[in-house]
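Shipment paperwork, digital attachment
Item: protein structure file
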Amino acid sequence: MLNLLKRKHKQGGFTLLELLMVVIIIAILASIALPQYIRAAERARVAEAIQILSSLRSAEHRYKAMTQTQIYTAVLTDLDTDFPVMTNWDVPLAPTVAGAGLTAKGFTTVARKAGMFAPKVVGIQFGTGTVCGTFVPLAALPCVAD
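Attachment content:
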């Protein structure tokens, strides 16, 4: 009996309760970290959209400077830039130009393709460069012609 007790004492290992506590602690940490990771990844996707919209805004300014009418175009193919293939965003919507040539104001937007942020929109105003849209952390301004 004494030998059995000594042998059992020498055998090391974790109890089921100790393993369960470790799993619970890891689950709690994961439940805290995962939403933060998702938000950070979505902010990066929004930053990508803003960068693409900024290049569209620059192309609109170049187009406006080169035309005699000094207005923005509502046709993306008139611009001197190619847009990258966007996996997270739809193709930029045709720019909205206010006043149909009477004013040189406008904006454009892109919409999120899929996922839990699918109906969200990010836009940029051509004149001021103000970012607008429905993403609360970065832009909660309505997209209107400036």
